[in-house]
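Aim 2 progress update. The chain analyzed this quarter is reproduced below.
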Amino acid sequence: MHLHSLMTISPIDGRYFNFTKCLRNIFSEFSFLKYRLYIEIHWLKKIISMHKKLNIRKIKAIDITLLDSIFKEFNEKDALYIKEIEIKIKHDVKALEYFLKDKCTQLKQLSNITEFIHFACTSEDINNLAYALMIKDARDKIILPLWSKIIKFLKDFSFKYKNVSLLSMTHGQAATPSTMGKEMANFYYRLQRQCLKLKAIEILGKMNGTTGNYNAHLAAYPKINWHIVSNEFVTSLGISWNPYTTQIEPHDYIAEFFSCISLFNTILIDFNRDVWGYISLNYFKQKKIDNEIGSSIMPHKINPINFENSEGNLGLSNALMHHMINKLPISRWQRDLSDSTVLRNIGVAMSYSVIAYKSMLLGSKKLIINTSELENNLNKNWSILSEAIQTVMRRYSIKNAYEKLKEMTRGKIIAQNDIHQFIETLNIPKKEKIRLKLITPCNYIGASSKIVDEII
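Predicted structure tokens:
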């Protein structure tokens, strides 16, 4: 069964194997079978626990553990056997049911309850709960830990460089300064908001039969309140219960889930592009790794490839997620099959995100701030102080303050001496002149540093 990474079609399982192998225990075909087996076994255990109400033979607690052992011992041989059955009958969930029946038939203690395997279930009762657990595990074990690393990097970076002045660029032109720490704090705050939202999204599941009305359940046991049983079962899996569905759980929560991730990704694309630009401006240098090559012909290059890789993979992930957001909540009448193949690509969409997150983190470790270049660029742009001067002039009711500074500075190279000479001509208190002359492009940062302290 081993397939060399060189022979795979997708780079997810080939070139980026080491980045995405953490998702294999969740989204591989083997893992999908195992999640569905988990649901089938737990539904059977739920039925067994209702033996008095259902008038079936009681199974000893020690014998019920045999069911758990079927799940715990599930292996590649078992998975291949299920796939062999599926090839014959052309139905994946029914193949799993037959596999479980076969396993239970071989165990004398469980042989009398085989007809209660998959009892009153439609395939989607099993599938939707399996996907819910897969998404929950991917969120809690993979996505959120990676998000936490990214957010921690931004938090630490913001605090470390909260006092390092930065010439802002609005419309690509020199503008009022900030600090590098404050600009990173902006990303920290935006990403942290999405992290909190992702944690709060309810992951939903249903267990209510062919069209969501317990028809088969009530046909067999009309006196049982299957609505309550469904609630108990779904919530016992650690997910929230959706009481109103057709044959399928409508996937609204998956759309919410991917909407949150795609927005996180979009914010991270914004971050990648900003950092790429700062590297281009020489505001950041990158650590030199001796055995790495930046260009096949230009020996001098250290390219920002990690941020470029991250940006590209975030775009791929978002493209898939946006399709899922638009597709999955829509199903013709009580059910069509168009969601099935889309759902099987949830792991693909998440894989591209995981590749991107890890690439961004690798690139972040290479960043070295270049304070001298930041200072040089600030000191070339004394005209940015025109904002401060004209605002103080307004405070003292000097007419046409904006227009005067516009005439003096717009489109011109202005030096420190030009600014100070202009300040001397102003009809304002001497102490204000002194204060204005103390303002430089490097220290004209407003409350940037304090804002970082507050947000952190």
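Residues 123-160 form the longest helix (38 residues). The first strand starts at residue 165 and ends at 170. These observations will guide the mutagenesis experiments scheduled for the next reporting period.
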